[in-house]
Amino acid sequence: MADLPRYCVWGVHHNMEIFASDADVFRPERWFEAQGEQLQKMDNNMKLIFGYGRFECLGKNVAFMELNKVFVEVCQSFLRSRLLGKQGNTTGTGVETEGCSQ
Length: 102
Ligand code: HEM
Known about the structure:
The protein is mainly α. The protein has two domains: 7-50, no CATH class; 58-86. 50% of the residues lie in helices and 0% in strands. The protein is built from five helices and no strands. The protein has helices at residues 9-12, 16-19, 30-33, 36-47, 60-86. 3% of the residues are buried.
């Protein structure tokens, strides 16, 4: 175990050479702004969160699928509750939207 290479996950994801000098700031827009080689570097760096090589996370693809789905679900649910809440309705899922209509 002592011979295995290790890395600091926090450090890797706050690397200012890759994520710019504001790497400490939560600014998701950086992913829309980056292009080409820069975006590729950021993407490769981000994937290290799953480990690498023979010890890489076996559920990486499942995790990406779930993450893609969860954002769509949360946004859809939020918009639906806002829309139907204004009409004094329910979401259709049995969840009362009263209080979400502001
Ligand atoms: C965002 C979600 C996830 C993250 C960040 C994550 C991250 C990791 C990391 C860092 C490791 C250890 C890699 C190493 O030892 O160097 C690992 C291992 C593993 N993960 Fe995940 N994981 C996630 C989701 C999942 C999911 C959804 C599954 C299953 C469906 C899964 C299954 C596994 C398994 C089986 C291992 C052990 C692989 C091995 O030792 O050969 N992970 N994961």
